[in-house]
Specification:
A two-stranded antiparallel sheet has the order 1-2. The protein contains 9 helices and 2 strands; from the N terminus they run ααααββααααα. By secondary structure, it is mainly α.
Length: 180
């Protein structure tokens, strides 16, 4: 799943004429391709609002970032596909915030003993930086990044231990995860 998201984010950045793949490209690709991630938004209307802002951005309307770089510093290399394997990093033009979100996703997966991160891990990584472009999109859509990140962590944890039901984790589980 992660390879699909990364490829879609790269294609979106290229199509948009952007110099680097940023967190909004990752968020757009993730929300479009991962049903588990969409469930973390707690309602289709919230998903629709986020996608609406992202589509406006990709056609040059609304949030104005086209052809500019996200964050400070030089583009960073993409983290290795699997944590701990020692494979060399591929050089790519990822914004520092996007690379940090991917590294956080890998760290979360490794903490659960999983080799590959889930979409929810990447969503938590994106929400961890409320100052990023993804964070800006989320706030414009009326979603607080820390709350979404906590819900993503709770869903990933519940899914990993097999306690996820159709409704997802309770508000109490999400609150406990937010406190961590």
């Amino acid at each position: 799943m992660l390879a699909t998201v990364l490829g879609a984010a790269r294609r979106r950045a290229l199509r948009d004429g952007d110099r680097q793949v940023d967190t909004a490209h990752l968020l757009h690709a993730l929300v479009e391709s991962d049903p588990e991630t969409r469930a973390a938004f707690d309602g289709e209307e919230r998903v629709a609002r986020v996608l609406g802002y992202l589509v406006q951005r990709s056609i040059g309307y609304g949030l104005r970032w086209q052809r500019s770089a996200e964050g400070e510093g030089a583009p960073r290399p993409l983290p290795a596909a699997r944590a701990g394997e020692g494979t060399p990093r591929r050089t790519s033009r990822w914004s520092p915030a996007a690379a940090a979100a991917l590294e956080e996703a890998l760290r979360r997966a490794a903490a659960r003993g999983e080799e590959q991160p889930r979409g929810l891990d990447l969503l938590a990584g994106l929400a961890a930086d409320p100052g990023s472009r993804a964070g800006e999109v989320l706030r414009h859509a009326g979603i607080e990044p820390p709350a979404l990140g906590a819900r993503a962590v709770a869903l990933a944890t519940a899914s990993a231990v097999g306690v996820l039901d159709r409704e997802g984790p309770s508000t109490e589980v999400c609150a406990r995860e937010a406190e961590r």
